[in-house]
Amino acid sequence: MRGGIMDVGLGRLVGPRGALDGRLPRRMALGGAVLCLGVTGCATHRIHEQPIMENGDRVEVPSGSEAADPQVAEDMARERERADSIRAEALASCTGDVCESVVRGELALGMDETQVLAATRTTAGSWRIRRSGPAVVFMPRTVVGGPSDGVGEIAMVRLDGGAVASYAYREPTGLRLVSRPEDATTSGRASALAEQLLREGDDLVARGDFEGALNRYDRADVLRPDDPMIGYRIATVLDKELRPVEALIQYQLFLHQMELENIEARGDAAAKMADAIAQARQRVIVLEKQTQ
Predict the structure, then answer these.
(1) Full residue range of the structural domain in which residue 146 is found
(2) Integer Cα distance of 18 and 5 in angstroms
């Protein structure tokens, strides 16, 4: 085999001049064929297939009505029809401010049951309704994702003699009750929120969390700036935190708002205010000496 070239495909030995020197043994021919197959199997193969999606293509998502169970879609359609019927009946029987509240989608004192459902865009199935003589109480059937109006999530509606006497909203600071016309106004909502913040602040003071209490009192002061007792609460907290300069200024602001001879309150309320003024004056004297 010296100087020769092996023709693997033919299994023959070719000499330097191209002459056939004879056939190779059968075993060598089979080995060459296996080698060819191995080399072919290791080669890279490119497969050209049609792409499923191109860059920028969008996946078509079926709409809710198309994807929903036909029975569910039918039930939802009937529910919408009932709500539309309730709204039409409510608007046909309402007058004045109640009509405006129904159109805005807000509860109002004096509404009847149909108008409550219309204002909240609900049907009777959304509520647990309890009846005790002339009193009717609407409670949400579910706590999470329950009925709401244009103002917020509703916690309870109470009717007396067929008209709404009070209702409550579920808010981050707790429940807010509306039982008077002024409670439903912007100033009424602000006053109710301020009252809740003051209660939270008092609880935090009792637990020794003065920073948390100061946070609640400051927020209440923004909502109800004409209440001098909020300023007194702020002053006492600053005093307890050993912040004499701030406490002194807050005491002085409180005394500026409240003068004992101008107090119109009577009884226990007057006594409490007079005591607060007396203590504020004493602390002003002490703090002025400390800050000099």
Answers:
(1) 80-179
(2) 9
